[in-house]
Amino acid sequence: QVQLVESGGGLVQAGGSLRLSCAASGRTFSGYLMGWFRQAPGKERELVARIGWTDGSTYYTDSVKGRFTISRDYAKNTVDLQMNSLKPEDTAVYYCAARRVITLKYDYWGQGTQVTVSS
Predict the structure, then answer these.
(1) What is the pLDDT of residues 8-45, one digit of tens each?
(2) Burial track 11-31 (b if 16+ CB lie within 10 A, e otherwise)
(3) Are 68 and 79 in contact (CB under 8 A)?
(4) In the chain, where does DSSP find H-type helix?
(5) Which of 1, 9, 91, 96 has the most CB within a 10 Å radius?
(6) How many CB atoms lie within 10 A of CB 50?
(7) Who's near 91: CB < 8 A, 6+ residues apart?
(8) How many distinct helices (H) and strands (E) make up the chain?
(9) Rounded distance, CA 77 to CA 85, Å?
(10) Distance of CA 109 to the CA centre of its chain
């Protein structure tokens, strides 16, 4: 059974940093893309960043470029999202998700972790 479990959310002041971690288990993720999404109240869920589990290729949405860094750790089977220079508009529930490279649909989702950035 595949499980994605997020941790590391919390409350931080604007300009601060948080590191989110997604512990992945239940299968090998070779050939998968691992993504971090977020959803703010009243807004649609958006892809924030993703990384190729095998090749390490990355993508970032424009609003987080230069501030967020996604990485994966083979030994720990985790995908982390380092978030620096946080802004109030980064406030959202952040979700870890996984999909096969050859598909468009994310098959597996975590339960989410709340990130709140105060001004």
Answers:
(1) 999 999 999 999 999 999 988 999 999 999 999 999 99
(2) ebeeeeebebbbebeeeebee
(3) no
(4) none
(5) 96
(6) 22
(7) 40, 115, 116, 117
(8) 0, 11
(9) 26
(10) 11
